[in-house]
Structures are given as structure tokens and as C-alpha cells.
Design brief:
The complex is a heterodimer. Chain A is an alpha+beta fold. Chain A contains 14 helices and 21 strands. In chain A, a hairpin with a 2-residue loop joins strand 8 and strand 9. By secondary structure, chain B is of the alpha+beta class. The chains are: A alpha+beta, B alpha+beta. Strand 16 of chain A pairs parallel with strand 4 of chain B.
């Protein structure tokens, strides 16, 4: 196996604070990026998003594509040298699906038969994950899913050691046991020191040490300019001038828009249990203009909850705008007297809501109170008592439109915070998931998106873009996409 | 005792227990008692409330920070018949002189009730800062140590600066301005919080109507022009404030710099020199943040001031008021500039650069990042080619290797997991109104 040659200087990455070393408890982009360095799954996504065989050596499909049989590589170990077998994969996945674990993103695995029932308290042995021998794992899906190899590569599906329990703090820096290219070796001041894992399935990575900088004394641009860090995400405001800067400009890179910011409605209670009211709020917003005004250098208006890079072919980039029609819809819904709506609450914890709120008040004549919450309080509120209108920024869990539609809008999904329950949507999404061939898939997903647009359980707002400063000499960073930046595949040019 | 009797006995016992329960004093939420709030700068803010009848099902603290359009909601757990919440301002910086209104919200048995509203001024009460205050026209000046004379002078200058800016922008100050005068650099930067750039000598928080000055930031003459600069920011904020779009930074700073002397003669030389040496900055580059280096930052101010001068010279002072009014109405930068000048922003920029004998600056191309040269673990033959587009047709059965494909072209795919609920938008919302101008 060839290794990259070049200086083996540490990679100094302004990764920021992280909340978890446990793939069951992901809270932020920083967590995702870190977990990717210290764990592995059956498959892995390369820097372009293509799944490739990682812990699995090969796989086969049966049952019309609804059953995957994975064959693990012989001799796999965790970073402490203990063996890693098919039973560890099964145990890791069942742990995520165990309702007692309270994992943050268990729905990623809900495509597995029996998984949704298990999350609701059903039996563990009914989950479609079988170990037939130490190196063979059989996974039964609810239906054929062409994207399951990507699901198997997501951090939630990473393989954790046998010491893992339902606590979020069982894994600690210094005594870390993982399966990825690096180990969480030590804290050095505010830096998390990652050391190459000699037992990694692809062999130890060429950069032996990554310094994960959790705190900078100043801003990231200054730190990069002073050669204190090699890689940093920066704000669009600084990107504006750096793009013209002869020194820093060559180091500036734009990552594609891969997330979506959206408004969601609590669809279980009036007035937003009425699709006409939701649709009215969507129709009132001229998103291209409002997003361009609010985020002139960093985002574009969204027309679907699926990020543009994942759009099925032929998805129309249209966003109907008609304040007059919106007002009529509110009238038809019984709110011609707007005071019957009361003071509506919008929680702006997920995005800047000022432009939308001002537009709703002006165009619809409604009264709105804006609230925000700390992140953890907000997550709890979303799960237990969502605001009438909430806001979120999501990035797809795996490269398929299904990831967004299913995790955010299927009735059983824990991240369907608005509790939208639409049988027609479920039928259309099932059909799209099972569609065979590009044109059939595209047509099916267009129908799904049209249904979402019509019923408006959410209002897609914008697709954000990321900006990075990259030290010249680094290679293998791909598109700098969150969830794809695998330091195990990064090296310094010689 | 027969079966029926045992049942009857049980019923009697249940009745007795029920009566005892009903007879006991009811402990439950019965409204709000006394409220209290306090703060120590750089350490904490504390909010407390008495709950004479006990805790409600749910208790929230609602905080409205001056300058923010959103209410920060924090669930609070009561302890007995009271509740206290502490905001750690060492970890989450809050600008001094922020006025906070607070209420408690109880949800009990499905009923929501609000406490009366309280207020707290988060002031800079660090040891050694023995503040004195004087009201001078539209300004309230605050000083400590031996800086009374300078502070009073700043107050007097504020009236002149505000009047000039009001005339230019055809708008009135929405309220009085607080000016805090710091003697030491440490005290000054301690007030600005993390992220303040090193060359900063004064800072304005327009939403708080507050200006922070550092006496060591320059000569007396410099400081006197600086107070004019900062007051102009506050008037400009009042004239352009809207929920849709923040005006271009170069215009805001350029106007404030121009206002220092009602001209940009000094800055003209700076720009002319840069045009002949390092080159000029595109206005698109300084729409949001200014560069971090002092030289480039200085050029940013100079370009802004000379552009304002150009607009006034060619289109008259009324053009500046028209531009501000357009912003206040929700216009983009390009629309606002066109509203004032009658030409497109591109034409305006081109005209500006031509006046210095240069063309519009061009962005720098990023250096390509080479692909990975690190080997993957051995792949099964079918997996060696990246998945192409289209077919999701699964392999018929038991075919070795990953015979099926991804769903669509991948080049730009996001992948890997994310439950990325990056919820900093709310903080942005709060911070939006707090970014200092300098």
C-alpha cells in the first residue's frame, strides 16, 4: 500500500469546540468532522462523496436489492488492537437504535427493517441486522435503497468499541479507543492532539499528528495569516476581501452549498395545522430577493429542502411568490380577521428571521414575536414542544434526496419536529425510494417535492456556502465538504 | 369479612385518603413574587424570582437585550419557592451599557402567565473604574480618573457632529448617545470583548447608542475627529435601520470618515498612492468586513471616504440622503447607490477607479487543491470506478462487490452524517445589532 511522501508536519486545524467523541451523540458540524477522523464504518465516502469499501471488504445484494450482505476484512482491529468483527457492527448499530441510548440521529438507520419499531420500544431481535459468522453481516432493509452504502458510511453508523455504553461520556481523550485513521491522544492546552492510528484499515495516515485547535485567541484569518493554523473555516464577510487579497486570496476556497436553512411549522396545532395557512406564509416570501438582501455574499435562495447539489434531475428552481394569493388563503382559512391568529411565535435560533418576519407582518398583516434559545434548550423544545414556526439549518446525512425528505418529513422521524403526517407524501417518497433508473427517480422525486411545496410543512429558505483558508501544500481535501473531509486521506505535498 | 366487605373497606380507605389530600394545603404555582436582577461586568448576570405558591410546570426567563429584535428564552428549574438563573458573561460576552428587560413566564396546567417586566443595566463596574457622568446635549458622557475635561469636550463635540450628520442624511437622532471614555488600553479592550481588532481606538455600538473611546488611541486632535466619526455612525444607523439588509460597510465607514473634516482630502492622497503601488480594493471586497491588516484597513476607510466625496461632488449632498433613505426602505447596496446617483453601482465603481487612473480590481484565483494521493484499502474490482449517475438497479443476487451505484452525480455531494443542526442563527440575530463600527 503506497503512502504519500512529504514533510510530516502536523496539520493544524481550527476545528473549534466539539461536544462529543461518541457517534451516537452528534450535535454540530464540528462533531461530525471530528468523528470522521477517529471512527470507521463498513464503507467510507471519499472526498468526492463516492462510497468505497472500508471495514467491509465486499458486499452483495439479494432480495431485489433489499438485503445487503457485507463481508468484513479479516484481521480488523480497533485502535487498541482488540479485534473488530461483524458483531461489533451489529452492536454499534443496535446501540444507536436502542431508545435508552437517546442517540441524536438514529433515523439515519431507520431504513433497516424493524429499526423504526425498535426506536419506538420494539424488540431488538426484530431489527434486520444478522451476524452469520464473525466476518459476515446481513442487513435487511424495508425496501431497496440504492444509497445504503452511503448510509453505512455516515458517522452514526460508525463502529464503536465494546466499552461503549449509553452514556455520552464513556469515551475520553487519552484513553480513546476508535476505528478511524486517528486516535484522540491528548489535550495540549486548547488543542486536541490526534495521533495516527497504526491499526487503521487503510494503514496509518501520512500526517502523523493533527492538532485540532478548539480555541483561538483571535480570529481565524489572523491566525492563518500568522501561520498558526493550516486549515480553517471562515465567515463570508472575511471571504469578501480575501478574494481580492494577493497573499491570502490563493488560499481561499468556497465549499459548495450543501445545507439548507428552512422554516418549519408545528402542524399539529392551529393555525399551522391548516395547509392553507402554511402555504400563505410560503407564498408571501420573495425568497430570492430577501435572501440576497440578508446574505449577499454567502447564500442563495432555496426552493427545496434538498440541497441543490443533491437535486434529482429536472427539479424546478421555482418559488411561487404572491402576497395577494397568500392573503386570500388566510382569509379562506378563517383568518380574515387576523387578530384571530393571535401573536404568532417564530423561533429564530436556526437562522436570521428578520427579513421573513418583516415581510409576513407587512404582507399578511400578522403579529409576530421572535424568540431565540440556547442550542441545547432549543433542541429539547423542538422535540417536546416546538414553536409555532421554528428554524433549522440541516446538512444531508448521506448523498441522496431521500436523506432530507425522510429524516425531516416522514411521520415517524424524530427530526420531523413539526410532526407533519401526510399519507400522500409517504406514498410518493416510498415510490421515489424504490424507483429504478435515473429518469424514473427524477420524476418520482419531483412529485415528492411538489407535494411538499403544495402542503408547505416547511419553507426552504436558503442554501449556505462555506469558505475555507487552506495552507498551500495540502492535498486530498476535496470539496472541503463537512462530512467528507477525511484527514486520513490528506497529505502535505513534498 | 366477606369479599364485599373488603371492597367496601378499600373504598372507605380510598375516600379517607382523598379527603386527607383535599384537606392538605395546596402547594402549586400561585403567581410571581419579588423579582431581582444584578450583574458584575465580565462575570455574570443573575435573575431571580420568588414563587410563593411553588413552581409552575414550566418556568422560562425571557431576556430582551437592547438592540435585538428577538427575545432570548431560557428554561429555568425552580428550587423550592424561588428560581434563579445566572448568565455567565465571562464565557458569553455582553457589551457594557446593554439594557436588558426581563420577565418570567410560567406555564402551569396549560395556562401561561407573565411576570411584570424588570430591567437591568449591564454596566462596566470593574474595580477601579469609578465612573462619573454628565449630560451634555444629546450626549451622556462617562469618565473615570482624570479624564473629565476630555469627556466633557467629547460631549460638546457630539452636538456639532450629530447636527452635521443629521443635515447630511436628512434624519434625526432617535435618542441620546452614551460616550464612555477609557484611560487604559486594557480597560478599553476589556469593554469591547473578544474579537476586537488591534488597531481599534474607538468603537460604536449603534443599537446600544453607545460609543467607547480610548484616550490613548491618539492625539487630542485625533480623538476629537474620532468622536465626530463615531457619532456619525449612530446617526447613519438611525437613518438606515431596516430588517432586510445592512448597508455596505465601506459606505458607513466612508461617510463617518468624510464627516470628520467634511471632506476626504487627506484620504485622497492615501488612495492615490495605493493606486500607484499596491493597488486598490474592490468595493465588493469591503462591503462586509474590512481586511485585518492596518494598511489595508486604512485603505478601506480612505476608499470609502473618497467615494462619498465623489458622490457629493458629482451628485450633490442630497444624493447621500437619498441613498440612506433607499437603504432604510429595504434596498440592496446597488439599488441604494443607484437611487442616489442615477447610475448603476458598476458604473459608479468604474468611474471611481478611473478617477485614480486604474481599472476595477479583479479577484485572485484560488490555488487548486491537488487530489488525494493516499491509497484506500484494497477495493473490490467493481468498486474501483466511482459510481456514475443513474441506475439504482441492484445486482440480481449475491453478486460480489458493490455492484450497484449511487443515485446521482456525486461531485458536489455532501456526505457523511450530519445531524447538523447548526443553530447559531439566533446568536447571529442577536449579534447583528451589536457589531461595533469603528
Amino acid at each position: 500500500m503506497g503512502r504519500a511522501e512529504g514533510k510530516v508536519s502536523p496539520l493544524r486545524y481550527a476545528g473549534g469546540e466539539f461536544a462529543s467523541l461518541d457517534p451516537a451523540f452528534i450535535e454540530s458540524a464540528s462533531d461530525v468532522q471530528l468523528l470522521l477522523q477517529v471512527y470507521a464504518g463498513l464503507t467510507r465516502l471519499d472526498e468526492d462523496g463516492n462510497p468505497y469499501a472500508s471495514l467491509a471488504q465486499s458486499w452483495s445484494l439479494s432480495d431485489g436489492g433489499a438485503t445487503y450482505t457485507f463481508h468484513l476484512r479479516p484481521g480488523l482491529t480497533f485502535s487498541d488492537g482488540s479485534s473488530l468483527e461483524a458483531s461489533d457492527v451489529r452492536r454499534s448499530w443496535l446501540r444507536v437504535l436502542d431508545p435508552a441510548t437517546h442517540a441524536t440521529a438514529p433515523d439515519v438507520l431507520s431504513i433497516i427493517s424493524g429499526a423504526t419499531e425498535r426506536l419506538a420500544g420494539g424488540p431488538e431481535n426484530a431489527v434486520g441486522i444478522e451476524v452469520t459468522d464473525p466476518l459476515t453481516l446481513v442487513v435487511h432493509l424495508k425496501h431497496p435503497a440504492s444509497y445504503f452504502l452511503s448510509i453505512a458510511a455516515t458517522p452514526t453508523a460508525f463502529v464503536v468499541p465494546r466499552s461503549a455504553n449509553a452514556s455520552a461520556s464513556w469515551q475520553k481523550v487519552g484513553s480513546f479507543v476508535g476505528s478511524g485513521p486517528y486516535e484522540a491522544d491528548a489535550m495540549d492546552g486548547a488543542d486536541l492532539v490526534l495521533k495516527a492510528n497504526a491499526h487503521y484499515v487503510a494503514g496509518p495516515p501520512p500526517i502523523e499528528e493533527v492538532r485540532w485547535v478548539t480555541d483561538l485567541p483571535g480570529d481565524a484569518v489572523t491566525a492563518f495569516s500568522n501561520d498558526e493554523i493550516d486549515l480553517a473555516s471562515i465567515g463570508s464577510g472575511d471571504a469578501g476581501w480575501i478574494a481580492y487579497d494577493r497573499t491570502l486570496g490563493p488560499a481561499l476556497h468556497r465549499a459548495p452549498a450543501l445545507g439548507v436553512q428552512y422554516f418549519g411549522f408545528d402542524t399539529t396545532r392551529p393555525p399551522f395545522s391548516d395547509a392553507r395557512v402554511r402555504r400563505a406564509f410560503a407564498l408571501a416570501l420573495d425568497r430570492p430577493r430577501l435572501v440576497a438582501l440578508a446574505e449577499p455574499t454567502g447564500a442563495v435562495a432555496a426552493s427545496s429542502i434538498v440541497p441543490r447539489a443533491l437535486w434529482p434531475a429536472g427539479l424546478p428552481d421555482d418559488r411561487a411568490v404572491s402576497p395577494a394569493a397568500a392573503r386570500n388563503l388566510l382569509d379562506d382559512a378563517g383568518y380574515a380577521d387576523r387578530s384571530k391568529l393571535g401573536t404568532l411565535t417564530v423561533d429564530g435560533s436556526g437562522l436570521g428571521v428578520g427579513p421573513a418576519v418583516a415581510t409576513w407582518e407587512r404582507e399578511l398583516g400578522v403579529t409576530i414575536n421572535v424568540e431565540t434559545m440556547a442550542f441545547r434548550d432549543y433542541l429539547r423544545a423542538l422535540e417536546s414542544n416546538p414553536p409555532q414556526i421554528f428554524t433549522i439549518n440541516w446538512i444531508a446525512d448521506y448523498p441522496s434526496p431521500y436523506a432530507l425528505y425522510s429524516l425531516l418529513l416522514l411521520p415517524d422521524a424524530t427530526s420531523n419536529y413539526g410532526r407533519w403526517d401526510d399519507a400522500e407524501f409517504v406514498r410518493l417518497l416510498d415510490a421515489a425510494s424504490a424507483a429504478v433508473g435515473a429518469s424514473a427517480q427524477a420524476a418520482a422525486y419531483q412529485a415528492v417535492d411538489a407535494r411538499v411545496d403544495q402542503e408547505a410543512p416547511v419553507i426552504p429558505w436558503s442554501y449556505g456556502a462555506g469558505w475555507w483558508l487552506v495552507r498551500p501544500g495540502l492535498r486530498g481535501l476535496g470539496n472541503l465538504t463537512v462530512g467528507l473531509t477525511d484527514f486520513g486521506r490528506v497529505s502535505w505535498e513534498s | 369479612m366477606g369479599e364485599l366487605s373488603r371492597r367496601a373497606s378499600g373504598a372507605l380507605l380510598l375516600t379517607a385518603v382523598t379527603l386527607l389530600t383535599l384537606a392538605a394545603p395546596v402547594r402549586g404555582f400561585a403567581g410571581f413574587g419579588a423579582m431581582h436582577a444584578d450583574s458584575t461586568y465580565g462575570v455574570q448576570m443573575t435573575f431571580s424570582v420568588d414563587l410563593p405558591g411553588g413552581a409552575p410546570d414550566r418556568l422560562d426567563l425571557l431576556l430582551d437585550f437592547e438592540g435585538s429584535d428577538a427575545t432570548l428564552v431560557t428554561p429555568v428549574t425552580a428550587s423550592g419557592s424561588s428560581a434563579t438563573y445566572r448568565v455567565d458573561t465571562a464565557a458569553d460576552s455582553v457589551t457594557p451599557n446593554t439594557r436588558i428587560t426581563y420577565r418570567w413566564r410560567a406555564t402551569n396546567g396549560g395556562q401561561v402567565s407573565l411576570s411584570p417586566q424588570g430591567t437591568l443595566l449591564y454596566d462596566d463596574d470593574r474595580p477601579g473604574l469609578n465612573w462619573h457622568t454628565a449630560r451634555i446635549g444629546d450626549a451622556t458622557v462617562h469618565w473615570y480618573g482624570s479624564s473629565e475635561a476630555e469627556a466633557r469636550r467629547f460631549g460638546q463635540l457630539t452636538a456639532n457632529a450629530a447636527s452635521a450628520a443629521e443635515t447630511l442624511l436628512s434624519d434625526k437622532l432617535a435618542g441620546p448617545i452614551d460616550i464612555f471614555v477609557y484611560v487604559s488600553r486594557t480597560d478599553f479592550f476589556g469593554a469591547l470583548g473578544p474579537g476586537a481588532r488591534e488597531w481599534t481606538g474607538a468603537a460604536t455600538f449603534p443599537q446600544l447608542r453607545t460609543i467607547f473611546m480610548w484616550l490613548g488611541g491618539g492625539s487630542t486632535a485625533y480623538l476629537e475627529t474620532t468622536i465626530t466619526h463615531e457619532v456619525t455612525h449612530v446617526v447613519f444607523h438611525d437613518a438606515t435601520d431596516n430588517p432586510f439588509h445592512g448597508p455596505a460597510t465601506w459606505f458607513n465607514e466612508g461617510l463617518a470618515t468624510w464627516a470628520e473634516r467634511q471632506s476626504a482630502d487627506v484620504q485622497q492622497a492615501t488612495v492615490a498612492a495605493a493606486a500607484k503601488s499596491t493597488g486598490l480594493l474592490a468595493f465588493d471586497a469591503i462591503t462586509d468586513q474590512f481586511p485585518i491588516g492596518a494598511e489595508a484597513a486604512g485603505l478601506s476607510y480612505a476608499e470609502g471616504a473618497t467615494m462619498v466625496q465623489l458622490i457629493i461632488d458629482r451628485y450633490g449632498r442630497a444624493a447621500v440622503a437619498s441613498i440612506a433613505a433607499a437603504w432604510r426602505g429595504g434596498a440592496s447596496d446597488a439599488e441604494a447607490l443607484q437611487a442616489g446617483t442615477g447610475i448603476t453601482a458598476e458604473q459608479l465603481y468604474a468611474s471611481y477607479f478611473a478617477s485614480f487612473g486604474v481599472g476595477p480590481p479583479q479577484p485572485v484565483s484560488p490555488a487548486p487543491i491537488p487530489g488525494s494521493n493516499v491509497d484506500k484499502p484494497p477495493q473490490p474490482p467493481a468498486a474501483s470506478e466511482p459510481a456514475a449517475a443513474t441506475s439504482a438497479t441492484p445486482a440480481a443476487s449475491a453478486a460480489p462487490g458493490p455492484a450497484q451505484t449511487a443515485e446521482a452525480p456525486i461531485g458536489l455531494y455532501v456526505g457523511g452524517l450530519v445531524v447538523l443542526v447548526v443553530l447559531l442563527g439566533g446568536l447571529w440575530w442577536r449579534a447583528r445589532g451589536r457589531a461595533p463600527a469603528s
